Amino acid sequence: MCGVIGFVGDEASPEFFYNGLKRLEYRGYDSAGIAMLSHGQMYIERAEGKLSALEKKLVHLPLKTSLGMGHTRWATHGKPSEANAHPHKSGNIVILHNGIIENYKEIKSFLQENGYVFESETDTEVAAHLLHYEFHKNTILLSPLENMKRSIFALVSRIRGAFAFGIICTDIPDVLFAVKYGSPLVLGLSDTAHYMASGIAALVEHTRSILIMEDREIAYLTAKNKEIVTFEGVPVSRKPIHVSWAASMLEKNGYDHFMLKEIHEQPQAIAQTINGRIDKSTGEIDLQSYGIHHIPLKNINRIQLIACGTSYYAGILARYFLESHTKIPVEVELASEYRYRTCTVNEHTLCIAISQSGETIDTLQAIRYARTHGAHTLAVVNAPGSSIAHHCHDESLIYAGPEVGVASTKAFVAQVTSLIILGLGIAQTQNIMTSTQIAAVCEQLVHIPYLVEKTLSLSSSIEKMAAKLIHLKSVLFIGRGPQYPVALEGALKLKELSYIHAEAYAAGELKHGPIALIDDEMYTVCLAPRDSYYEKTMSNIEEIRARGGKIISIGTTGDHELKQLSDEFIEVEPCAEMILPFLTTVPLHLLAYWIALKKGHDVDQPRNLAKSVTVE
């Protein structure tokens, strides 16, 4: 989620940190800050908004430093503001953080009882004060360096959640501390400096020697040396990788393909689509920020979602949440078929065109058709100023950022996120949900990016799995409820990229025909996280197993029963039902990517496909 850059070495300027943060802009952010240590004094500059706001403050920082950090923040706890921007300071300690501290409230109460005053609304400031508290327990008994090591051990033993920390202490002016658990963090190595970042892209201009930190590790970096230990204090020895990229590949932010980059940008796409549109503390949806200016939502009693391809599947998935939140009937329409049926819309119908590019010709023609028959029209698109938006009453951008890969990935999850927010806005306008109920859903929404980012760590294990599946000729995908459209999306991606025939079914439909295809050579991808559909889905999986079918399952961590039924088992975090489809989507995108890559296909430009379909 957040962008992190750190340096310890001979010399770095404010522009070094600023440019590193620029390289990490794709991660999404709402504020930024830089901390630099110079002649024993800590200088911190922070700003809300775009990096350009921080750039204006660089003149207030020292001309150079041997130790410093920078950070771009996407808010989870506390609104976007300068006070909530990182880095945070507690006495002689400065800290920045990527992740979420789940038990911050109880730790905050403890710290307040011990005299600590909080200046921000963030969970990160809790870590800063707790580390300061631990550090000052033993200032006489230990050297500053050993004391800080002990204090970090105490910190990580007490907090719960996901975190990548960068830490500086003015008492230890030649050491940069890095801590990783659940959030990405890499180290850059050179002869005269060491670096820390949340992504390789921030470092390749300075070093090609990269060390990927793993969970439960702490690094102590100086200009010439590095030491890595586990949370238990066990030394870690790992060889760095050498990154040899052409300059043009930097546009992929260090990934081999745009598609893989965009899969990994899903947390940011979701975060940026949420940002500024919800207030989880008050349960208020900002419909102006969302893009509703002309549509009378109070009068809507019917919704149509019109789209093609992946956007169509996003609509099918969003329908579950739209109907749940608004109690309004929702229809999902294929744009290519829409104009060839009798139009039944009226002034109480909201027709929503969903399109990544905003130029899909079938969707454009369909939304024009709906508008001429009296419907209110809304464009949910990723490109401002698009043709579809031009022909709609209102436009809402998903803010997923440019999507270069032909097979849409991050736009899918951003579209679903956008439609959930819209549903909450309609429920708010029509008094269908209370602010307390809306706030509870918003609380779930802001945790989705963090959980999706954790799920992305499955990539390496799915790559190994893919090597065993490249021989497949046909694959079935099944799911129930919100997992059914995820199955549709997974089958489409496998077809698009690997050219393997794949079909998706609602799991309950398996016995009404498709089960005839099951034999000992047929693989079925079964989406079976622990949700309200779980028991029924498990029955369908038993039917497949009874007929000798091979099973690739995606289920909830710790589901031993499902794992025993499966030939391959992929596990995602237990979470609320609304969040689960976002998590189960990630392995399907990765599975399609890795199978296609193992088969030697061009994953960014699959055969016969174009990014934006502008012909009927």
**What's the CATH H-level superfamily name of the largest domain?**
Aminohydrolase, N-terminal nucleophile (Ntn) domain
The number of helical segments is 19
What spatial form do the alpha-carbon principal axes imply? globular
Assembly state of the chains shown: single chain
Side by side, the strands of the main sheet go: 3-2-4-1-10-9-11-14
Report the end-to-end length measured between terminal Cα atoms: 38 Å
Query: Main beta sheet, described?
Result: 8 strands, antiparallel
Description:
Residues 245-249 have low confidence and may be disordered. The chain is built from 19 helices and 26 strands. It has three domains: 3-250, Glutamine Phosphoribosylpyrophosphate, subunit 1, domain 1; 260-455, Rossmann fold (3-Layer(aba) Sandwich); 467-598, 3-Layer(aba) Sandwich (Rossmann fold). It is globular, with a radius of gyration of 25 Å. It has an eight-stranded antiparallel sheet. It has a six-stranded antiparallel sheet with strand order 5-6-7-8-12-13. Strands 18-17-19-20-21 form a five-stranded parallel sheet, sandwiched between helices. It starts with a strand and ends in an 18-residue tail after the last helix. The chain has 616 residues and is of the alpha/beta class.
